[in-house]
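HOLO CASE FILE
Compound: iron/sulfur cluster
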Amino acid sequence: MAELSVEVAGIKFKNPIWVASGEPTSTYDKIKRGIDAGAGAVVAKSYCAAYTTGHETKRPFPLAKFCILGYDRKPVTGKNIPKFYTNYCRSGVIQWCRDDEDQWVELLGKAQKYASQSDSYVVGSIFGSKVIDDMTRFAKKMEQAGLKMLEVDLGCPNVEKMVEKGALLKVAQDYFTVTREICKSVSIPVFIKLSPQQADLAATSKGVKEVGGAGVTCMNRVLGLAIDIDNARPFIWGWAGVGGPWMLPISIGWVSRISETVPGFPIVGSNGVYDWQDVVQFHMAGASAVQICSTVMVKGYSMLKQTIEGLNGFLNAKGYRSVQDIIGVATKASINYDQMYRTPEYREKAVVDPEKCIDCGKCLEVCWFEAMQENDGVCQVDENICQGCYNCRVVCPIEGCVTMKPAASLVK
Ligand SMILES: Cc1cc2nc3c(=O)[nH]c(=O)nc-3n(C[C@H](O)[C@H](O)[C@H](O)COP(=O)(O)O)c2cc1C
Ligand code: SF4
Ligand code: SF4
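Model generated. Tokens follow.
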């Protein structure tokens, strides 16, 4: 069995699979279910400090609305939910908050005690707001309740729609002010959860580190609009958070960029996990631990156990001794455009097997470099022009008809 434990900001977690902050972590019982399913940590639903001190009046009706869109961009249910689904939804971020913050902190403390019995952790989460005093007071209370780590959600996709209620805009300066103040108020590690709606998550991460942050969670979802063309209006009545496994490459890209820009700064991956393969991608990009929300909402807590087992199986099958062995390996293997030009293996040419070619003409249509030519009922590649772009191989309907060969001899 491979070693699944990871160290994140000085704390040893029994495994890197965490439940992300959201509806599946919004009560004591739900946090317990995440712990029972084997999660290395459970990040509690973010608490909206501003809403407890008169800066916001609680809404009488729920805001929550969950909608999963399929490959045709229309709502799907049950067995029709595909792997790369879109989660288009609004959280019940406001109405669930308890009036009494002490009650929530008490439950978190109790949940941490329960988690300790399974060698797991509860991470306290605070929803970023303009009311910094509320946030620091809340952070202190969470620390006193026995929590060992905090996360501050500055990435909520819906804040643009809640700015007038005290939510923070996603500008870097807000991140730094909040991080500095919260980190001054507690001695436990504070992670800042980033938003992809920010211009440069790597630069922000660097700033977060400079003002005392222990690490970043990369990243939350985005705000978007999905339109029901049959009824000429948005699904679920308007704007919502947009996420789901299709977003994984964007999240992975930022994790990789942050790990290069701020080497050694702990990154917890979030946004886009469907299964253990996606977790492996996050690690290979540079994340030390990985959080999951949407797929827990869709598949239930049991997917956590499957994900942990899948990760373990992968490490064993590939001969890795630990999760640590794969952290950042793909980021290190990634080369820039200049290096690509100098890498002989990068230079390839397409070759058409005349025995297999059925002269359907598809490759001729999509060779954007005019390298594919037709000759006597079969397609042929002009080696001197071919860029090795793969597009003919992508469209060719005949398996194995187009292959690539190295063009190392052309490299100076
Ligand atoms: C319904 C819902 C509620 C969420 N609530 C919170 C929250 O309170 N605090 C927070 O930091 N993130 C929240 N998130 C964001 C998730 O923690 C997670 O970062 C995001 O959904 C991307 O990960 P995923 O692809 O695993 O869902 C919420 C997400 C969803 C879908
Ligand atoms: S690899 Fe690209 S450039 Fe070369 S023949 Fe195929 S489509 Fe054309
Ligand atoms: S797409 Fe394939 S089968 Fe069709 S013409 Fe090109 S090489 Fe031949």
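CASE NOTES: Residues 350, 367, 369, 371-372, 381, 386-392 surround iron/sulfur cluster (ligand 2) (CB under 6 Å). The mean pLDDT is 91.
CLOSED: yes
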